[in-house]
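Quick check before the chapter quiz. The format below is the same one you will see on the exam, so make sure you can read both the input and the output lines.
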Amino acid sequence: MSEETTIFDVMPGQLMSVSDVTKELSKMWSVSPGPAHEAPSEFRASQMNLILHFGLKTSLDEAKERFNTAISFAQRYPCRIIVLCPMGREHSDRLLEGKLFAQCYVGTSIRQMCCCEALILGYPTRVAGFLSNQVSIWLENDLPTYHWFNRIPSERVTGMHMNFIKRCRRVLFDSDVEQENFADIEWPRPGVAVDLAYARILPIRQSLGQFFSRFDTDKLAGGLKTVKTRYSKGREGEAVNLLKWTQECLEACAKDAKVELKAEFTSEECGDAHSLEIEWTYEDSRRFLWTHEKKGLDACVTADFGTGEIKTPMQVGLLDAPAALAEALFFSN
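Here is the expected output.
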């Protein structure tokens, strides 16, 4: 990030004082369009608050990409988006600044119109500890709140931002971009934190789960030696989550088959041959290998669980960003 331009500077919206943001928002939705048309408020049925919280290490391009993801999500799941944009020490003399972004999107008919809103706060890091006070004013208090951290150091989350978490139904992070393991944070409630990388592999988990369901649990878990995921650069989060999901599945298989699971579970970067791989080895000739190409939807299973070799192509991909956001917020365990 350059010294001249901050995340707040590149966010869209009308610049105004922080105190005027909610006033202007209220005026905007109450505008009367005339007797022949409906007011924009008819198409603004917010279901939730979504706080998008950037850290200083967020690049300008990444910030814009995350913002666009949130807006795309809001077109399907109407919500109030609150964007928190830090300004570093070189901007310590700046005060809180506000922007208001609002836009209506029309589908194939006027009845498919959806109105989105984003309240954007620029703040110097010296006041980060007081953010919850300002955010509480901007929230729609009768709606559930979700919080999406992007490149916020874990010590700042635990030391300064736990007040946010107490009011949130879920907290999101992305292990592909975070340098620390957010899963290790002592969250106030079990299951409150969800990894977007785990949400993105939903189609993969579904496809592999359907494949494994064809085999007896003792053939899957019995005599298993190693389970290893391999990943290309930028896919570590997906690989680690795929490994964890596989381990949980195999533990359930071992329990059902009344066998001991002794396998070693590991993950490693493998270069650019494939986007993701997972391989199982056994004490005998059984084996399993799943590979996913780096581009497109092509994947392949090569396996032998004691009944002969199976080679099965698959068409499966990762969820796109708005769909992964919805999966993480509403459905992931």
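If your answer matched, good. The mean pLDDT is 90.
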